[in-house]
Design a protein that fits this description.
The protein has strands at about 5-10, 15-20, 30-35, 45-55, 60-70. The protein is an all-beta fold. A hairpin with a 5-residue loop joins β4 and β5.
């Protein structure tokens, strides 16, 4: 399956762009998680959660921040 370029909105990664995998329908996967930055290098950082929110007229997919999990 092809990779798709997406833009993140909200949360600590706001404005970042990255490439994610497409699902069987050709849309980007519905949810991505990214590690947050931890101040303590020995701590396990939480995972930032972004969910697919839609496609803009210019063809760019957007993922919105929905929270974090530990």
């Amino acid at each position: 399956m092809p990779d798709i370029r997406v833009r993140l909105r909200g949360g600590p990664q706001d404005g970042q762009e990255l490439t994610v995998s497409a699902d069987s329908s050709g849309k980007p996967i519905p949810r991505i998680t990214l590690p947050a930055r931890a101040r303590n290098p020995e701590a396990v950082p939480p995972r930032l959660i972004y969910e697919r929110s839609g496609k803009h007229g210019d063809g760019t997919w957007e993922f919105r921040y929905v929270g974090a999990e530990t």
